Amino acid sequence: MTPERLSSIAFWARDLSADEVARACRGLVEKTWPAGAYVAHRGDRFDSWTGVVSGLMKIGSVSSSGKAIAFAGMPAGMWFGEGSVLKGEMRMYDLVALRETRLALMNRATFMWLFENSVGFNRFLVRQFNERLGQFIALVEHDRMFDGVARIARGVAWLFNPVLNPNVGPCLGISQEELGQLAGVSRQVANRALQILEAEGLLRLSPAGLTPLDLGALNGYGE
């Protein structure tokens, strides 16, 4: 991977020195998965730190009773899996491509070298971990307290998180079915929720996709 390519797909590379960028480039490859494909199953050893170059990923699991649970959606620009790579453990969740998805995969040796040597990379990781902690605390709250409209509203806000994905544009191409999968609701519930949120002036729907108009209100919806 060239430094120019890395800069275009990884916002965290801006915090690295030229030597650190060169080291990161040597440890990265890109691969593509078709829609519906499992990148990794729960219990797999998947030692790559992962960035979404294009497409849409779902992090989730299936309970012993067969119920599918979505933990998070990862649109293009987001990076994930740092906890599993740091601990060298098996994945505790499934990684599924909701549409054709291209991923950037950094091998563990390169990730650990950056972790042990790069101040800029560690600053990025601290921000990343802090934001993820808030996300998963909110996920528990959503599941226990909020209806489908609030879950969709907060799911939209998460996809446009400016800390985890500062390069996200004003509009995201995502279907109602995909959004429902990420929020753990049916497509019909997602459709109704989006119509309510649009009527309240919090987002705008168009053939190109979904545009949030008030991220603060979406993130706090239902309180």
Describe the structure.
The chain is 43% helix and 22% strand. It is α+β, with helices and mostly antiparallel strands. The protein folds into two domains: 3-118, Jelly Rolls; 146-219, Winged helix-like DNA-binding domain superfamily/Winged helix DNA-binding domain (Arc Repressor Mutant, subunit A). β4 (56-62) and β5 form a beta hairpin. The radius of gyration is 17 Å and the shape is globular. 34% of the residues are buried.
Outline:
The protein is α+β, with helices and mostly antiparallel strands. Helices cover 43% and strands 22% of the residues.
N to C succession of SSEs = HHEEEEEEHEEHHHHHEEH
Strand order of the largest sheet: 1-8-3-6
Number of helices: 9
Estimate percent helicity. 40-55%
Q: What is the terminal-to-terminal distance?
A: 45 Å
Layout of secondary structure:
Elements lengths: L2 H7 L8 H9 L1 E6 L4 E3 L8 E6 L1 E7 L5 E8 L3 E2 L1 H6 L6 E4 L3 E6 L1 H10 L1 H27 L2 H12 L16 H8 L3 H13 L3 E4 L2 E4 L2 H5 L4
Antiparallel strand pairs: 1-8, 2-7, 3-6, 3-8, 4-5, 4-7, 9-10
Helix pairs in contact: 6-7, 6-8, 7-8
